[in-house]
Design brief:
286 residues; mainly beta; OB fold (Dihydrolipoamide Acetyltransferase, E2P); 4 domains; five-stranded mixed beta barrel; 18 strands; 14% helix; elongated
Length: 286
């Protein structure tokens, strides 16, 4: 049985050269270094540092291109490809892109990362011993966190999503602050690995921050009102929503809170752009 651990970097000796590459060994263990995985010509007896992984035939093979992410080592990896329903592949700095399994991705595919997004991952193995990229959990950020000591309310902030759900989204900012976005402070659920831009709405005693992806109320009103007008135009000037409509129905259709919806309705009525007739219809005034 091969005692080499995949996902690690090992120093191995060239045992012999073959047509397809080199046979490497470390004590009684062997691995194949293909010609296209070697960064130079090697001689028998020469020592080489290689990264070990398993090929499609479940044989341990080696690469001279050492990744920046390994077993028990975390780093940011860019998403290269999305393959539904198995997961996404990320670049860890070697010739083989690593799979992030569907089991480690959000339940809803709309929140899956897309090519260009970045995930903070380490390497691990599944039950069959196959190498996978594993996204970091809260505790895996460890000493990266910085306390938000000099930040102020409403300051702009940019961060990378490392956890997201229907209830809220967790980010690590560009300055390594821990941030949380409640579901009421976003129009839609961000993707895992997405870079988001928001503003600080609270600074917590533990040094973390609360973030909103929504503009300030006075800035938001115009966009909310415009969204309602666009919806009315698409519905021939009528819609079954008023200031008494169910908050969840409003959020599902307009991605805004009921209070924001009511403010926008009030502004539009004051401008004489709409009026409420009966209980569940809003019309554009002619």
């Amino acid at each position: 049985m091969n005692g080499l651990q995949i996902g690690t970097v090992q120093t191995m000796e060239v045992l012999r050269k073959i047509d397809t590459g080199y046979v490497l060994h470390q004590e009684d263990n062997e691995a194949l270094l293909h010609n296209n995985e070697a960064d130079k010509e090697l001689e028998t007896g020469e020592e080489v540092e290689v990264f070990l992984y398993m090929d499609k035939s479940e044989q341990i093979v080696a690469s001279s291109k050492v990744p920046f992410i390994q077993i028990d080592t975390f780093g940011w990896a860019q998403v290269i490809e999305v393959i539904k329903p198995i997961g996404v592949f990320v670049d860890i700095g070697t010739t083989k892109d690593m799979l992030v399994s569907v089991d480690d991705l959000p339940l809803f595919q709309s929140a899956w990362p897309q090519p260009g997004d970045q995930l903070y991952v380490t390497l691990g193995t599944d039950r069959k011993g196959r190498l996978l990229a594993i996204p970091a959990k809260e505790q895996d950020f460890g000493d990266l966190w910085e306390a938000a000591l000099e930040l102020k309310l409403n300051m702009p902030v940019t961060g990378r999503v490392y956890y997201t759900s229907r209830e809220g989204t967790a980010i690590i900012t560009e300055n390594n602050h821990r941030g949380f976005i409640h579901h009421t402070e976003r129009n839609e659920e961000p993707r895992l690995g997405e870079l988001v831009h928001g503003r600080i709405i609270a600074i917590k005693e533990d040094g973390s921050i609360n973030v909103s992806l929504l503009p300030l109320k006075h800035e938001r009103l115009d966009s909310d009102a415009e969204q309602i007008l666009q919806h009315l135009a698409q519905q021939d000037g009528r819609m079954p929503f008023t200031d008494k409509s169910d908050p969840e129905d409003i959020r599902a259709t307009f991605h805004m809170s009921k209070s924001a919806f009511k403010r926008a309705l009030g502004r539009l009525m004051k401008m004489k752009r709409i009026e409420q007739r009966a209980e569940e219809t809003v019309l554009i005034k002619e």
